[in-house]
């Protein structure tokens, strides 16, 4: 019996030691947080006061622990504005700005969240987590410096293709057919010419083809032929030797840097015709000659090129030499513009919403029907790049508590463009102001949705993302009568 009692006592001692160790660990973690943590028990006595709170308020924890909250903060403002609200409502206060005076004459500016803690159904404590407003700018500066550092590191690894063919979004037949073709041609080393309007994702396909090919372990070197001055493009592509011209040194060109990998010549139609002749020789003989050099250097890399012009128009102008065209276009892939794949509109919009939800800390999880209706009927001359830009712009003005992306979030100039688009809503032509067009559109959308739901108010309100009473109000405002809805 004595032995069993001793075992039980040893077990209890071990549990006590483990709890003490865990308690010390939690206290250490709380003390090393950048946020202020402050807690009172059910008797309004201060039981937790971490290091960051000491820094903000200029008081020592040994001077406040165990004391009543009202004794430490004699002006009673915190007790009145925060503690009593928690006691009366039982609900937390989240992300609230607050300024309060301290006994030492200091003023503290914070953003706080305060929570009630219940034990067996009874309020046992109230704790606050706060950030010092004066330190937030410092945190922003540090964060931006870290982002710059990561960006520099990323730029140092830009010879790697970032995207896969699996990253290409869309369920439409046209985009799926294009992805299927890209997978097939990736397995060979034939040159590929990608044709597509600006913003359709030509470079994304080039990345994907490279990563699906036998050249994937080598570098991926993108070159925008339109962005490099004609006088520099030759030296950038083929390299230079020391003494070729004033200030020249031994520098390998991009073809050499792409050895064993892929070089992507974007906007090939912007390359000077004289330089195209030299590029033709690279394709034929697989050798390059640096500017100022007498020797030839063999190269082994795949060439993928892209143009935003119809290739036959480019040859007729001529923006591309006909003999180079036939070398580059062994395989030609056309990327469909967004207006030809409207069935992908919703999935693409959702992709960008999720991207900017993460980036901006938002929680949009619904797209209003009228917005998708307009998106699907707009021609999108800037294609996917334009769609991404518009979604990002809209997400910048969304409020933190909003869940639905709506037409009014879009830039005003773009709202007008959507509503004036002939393919969108022909009857709006000549309606005048943007406000008048929006009202006309809203009336038409409600009538069409009521018609679709055979006058069912509940279904119509649900589909339009509004309350029944709001729908009734709008119907009355626009003079919409159910008896006229068949």
Q: Can you give keywords for this protein?
A:
20 helices, alpha/beta, transcription regulation, five-stranded parallel sheet, sequence-specific DNA binding, 3 domains, 486 residues, Helicase, Ruva Protein, domain 3, Rossmann fold, Beta-Lactamase
The CATH superfamily of the largest domain appears as P-loop containing nucleotide triphosphate hydrolases
Outline the biggest β-sheet: 5 strands, antiparallel
**Record field, number of beta strands:** 16
Share in β-strands = 15-25%
Major beta sheet, strand line-up: 2-1-5-4-3
State Rg: 33 Å
Shape: extended
Number of helical segments with 4 or more residues: 20
What is the arithmetic mean of pLDDT?
A: 84
CATH architecture of the largest domain: 3-Layer(aba) Sandwich
Structural class: alpha/beta
Distance between the termini: 88 Å
Question: Uncertain regions: pLDDT < 50 for 5+ in a row?
Answer: none
CATH topology title of the largest domain: Rossmann fold
The tally of structural domains comes to 3
CATH class of the largest domain: Alpha Beta
Helix content: 40-55%
């Amino acid at each position: 019996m004595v032995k069993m009692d001793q075992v039980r006592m040893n077990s209890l001692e071990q549990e006590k030691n483990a709890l003490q160790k865990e308690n010390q660990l939690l206290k250490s973690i709380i003390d090393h947080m950048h946020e202020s943590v402050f807690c009172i028990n059910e008797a309004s006595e201060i039981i937790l006061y971490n290091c960051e709170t000491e820094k903000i308020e200029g008081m020592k924890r040994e001077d406040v622990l165990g004391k009543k909250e009202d004794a430490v903060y004699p002006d009673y403002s915190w007790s009145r504005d925060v503690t009593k609200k928690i006691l009366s409502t039982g609900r937390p206060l989240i992300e609230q700005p607050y300024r309060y005076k301290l006994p030492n004459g200091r003023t503290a500016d914070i953003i706080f969240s305060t929570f009630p803690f219940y034990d067996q159904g009874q309020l046992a404590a109230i704790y606050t987590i706060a950030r010092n407003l004066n330190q937030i700018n410092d945190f922003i500066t540090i964060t931006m410096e870290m982002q710059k550092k990561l960006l520099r590191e990323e730029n140092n690894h830009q010879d790697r293709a970032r995207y896969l063919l699996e990253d290409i979004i869309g369920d439409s037949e046209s985009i799926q057919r294009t992805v299927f073709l890209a997978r097939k041609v990736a397995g060979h080393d034939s040159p590929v010419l990608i044709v597509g309007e600006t913003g359709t994702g030509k470079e994304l396909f080039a990345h994907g083809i490279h990563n699906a090919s036998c050249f994937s372990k080598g570098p991926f070197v993108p070159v925008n032929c339109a962005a490099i001055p004609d006088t520099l493009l030759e030296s950038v592509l083929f390299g230079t030797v020391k003494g070729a011209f004033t200030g020249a040194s031994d520098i390998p060109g991009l073809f050499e840097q792409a050895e064993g990998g892929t070089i992507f010549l974007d906007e090939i139609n912007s390359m000077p015709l004289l330089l195209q002749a030299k590029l033709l020789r690279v394709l034929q003989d697989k050798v390059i000659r640096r500017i100022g050099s007498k020797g030839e250097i063999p190269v082994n890399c795949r060439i993928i090129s892209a143009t935003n012009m119809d290739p036959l128009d480019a040859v007729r102008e001529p923006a591309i030499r006909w003999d180079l065209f036939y070398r580059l276009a062994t395989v030609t892939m056309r990327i469909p513009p967004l207006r030809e794949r409207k069935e992908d509109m919703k999935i693409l919009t959702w992709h960008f919403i999720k991207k900017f939800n993460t980036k901006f800390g938002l929680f949009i999880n619904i797209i209003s029907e009228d917005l998708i209706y307009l998106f699907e009927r707009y021609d999108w001359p800037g294609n996917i790049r334009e769609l991404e830009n518009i979604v990002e712009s809209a997400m910048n003005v969304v409020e933190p508590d909003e869940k639905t992306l709506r037409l009014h979030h879009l830039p005003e100039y773009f709202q007008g463009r959507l509503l004036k688009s002939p393919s969108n809503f022909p009857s709006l032509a000549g309606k005048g102001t943007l406000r008048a067009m929006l009202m006309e559109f809203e009336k038409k959308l409600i009538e069409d949705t009521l018609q679709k739901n055979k006058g069912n108010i509940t279904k119509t309100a649900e589909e339009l993302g509004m309350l029944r009473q709001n729908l009734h109000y709008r119907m009355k405002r626009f003079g919409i009568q159910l008896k006229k809805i068949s």
